[in-house]
Amino acid sequence: MLTVSDVCRRLGQSKYTVYRLIHERRLPAVQVSGQRHKYLVEETALDEYLEDQDYYATPVAEHDGPIMLTASEVAAILRCSVETVRRLANAPNGLEAVRNPGRNSHWRFDRDAVLRYLRARPTTAEPTAS
């Protein structure tokens, strides 16, 4: 039996996605007695879900368009806060970003642009031996 955290690691998804799959009954799970938000998933049920969904059928390299990242994903890559990523996106000659239209607009970053920024970013100077 796998916990929700184990399923998250196997799927590479957040716990909210896993809970949604469980509540939509797309991923069979057993609720632990006496605990409201504790579920266990059989490993065979997870394997069947992956086979049914063709989860690994399309490799990332075969996508047509650019791979877009969220601000939190970019923050993990750059090892900084989400607020720093937003400041970099607003800065001139900063990080290239696209803002989704709407009231609750979110930043999206092209993965290749983030990697270019990371390579071009100045590194800290090495201490010199005296």
Could you walk me through the main structural features you see in this protein, from its secondary elements to its overall organization?
Helices cover 42% and strands 12% of the residues. The chain is elongated and about 55 Å long. It has 2 domains: 54 residues; 53 residues. About 5% of the residues have low confidence. The strands form 2 sheets. The chain has a 3-stranded antiparallel β-sheet with strand order 1-3-2. A 3-stranded antiparallel β-sheet has the order 4-6-5. With 130 residues, it is an alpha+beta fold. It is built from 6 helices and 6 strands, in the order βααββαβααββα. The termini are far apart.
Helix and strand topology:
Blueprint: E1 2-3, H1 4-11, H2 15-23, E2 30-31, E3 39-41, H3 43-53, E4 68-69, H4 71-78, H5 82-90, E5 98-99, E6 107-110, H6 111-120
Antiparallel strand pairs: 1-3, 2-3, 4-6, 5-6
Helix pairs in contact: 1-2, 4-5
